[in-house]
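Worked problem 6 (solution included).
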Amino acid sequence: MLVTALPIIPLTAHAQPYPARPVRIIVPFPAGGGTDVIARSLSDELSRGMGKPFIVENKPGAGSVMGNDLVAKSSADGYTLLLTTSAFSIVASIGIKLPYGGIHAFEPVALLGRAPNVVLVRNDSRIRSAADLLREAKANPGKLTYGSAGNGTSVHLAAEYFQSLAGVRLVHVPYRGSAPQFADLLAGHIDVAFATMASAATLIRDGRVRALAVTSPARSPAFPQVPTVAEAGVKGYSAEVWYGVFVPKGTPATVVAALHRAIAQASAAGAFRDRLAREGVVSGIGAPQDLRTTAEQEISRWQQVVKDKEIRIE
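Solution. The predicted structure is:
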């Protein structure tokens, strides 16, 4: 009887519903930034909805490559998620060698939404508008400095694209995340910052910085008074940010489906939906294939932009 019963133990354990233990959400950016804020709000909803803790871990570095790599090489069991942004596509499009297999190393789970980047100055800056920025940059090429959250990030490439289309030259000062970037902007160590709306929204509302323009094709519902870069005179310019969740390649389809359902339910919840809106993100939970399509289209788009505009990532 004992011999017959032995196989039942592992089979019963294997049949435990997902998740049976805490789940990690890897954010490939520093704590305190916009993506981190979104991840922590989502983790609260998933923890309540799925009955196990979803724990955010920040793994910044190399424009998101380090965090991506950690997830790509984790067990494909649904216990390590990647919550990332357009940086996922950008690092795959700028010609650097990735330590993982690009998009093919992941299974898409859900597209969370989209938001613009935003061009910022401190409130006492002599630059009062995007038109002022363009005039001063053209009059003094290579004199103005701009900060980004790091080399190869979505905001870095958005800024390089801006310079290319506008015919201006700014000096790039990369940081390890948005928090030190904003500290230096407020202290007057840099002239301008390109940032995600999610990371900058609170500073804008508090009046600590001035938003000159958003990088989306249309104005942001969160800040409708802020013009687009295209409205400011850079015709055809657009550089939005998307947010999405991935898991390692080979994660069971049943686990991906369970996570997608839980994220859709979390998005319908008032707290998470309101948090996205407050951070300037237009929510729209897409199917897993929507995220894959978006990421692939962005890779192709930025590869072409980098080639056509001869944008160099230092």
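Discussion: The longest strand covers residues 106-122.
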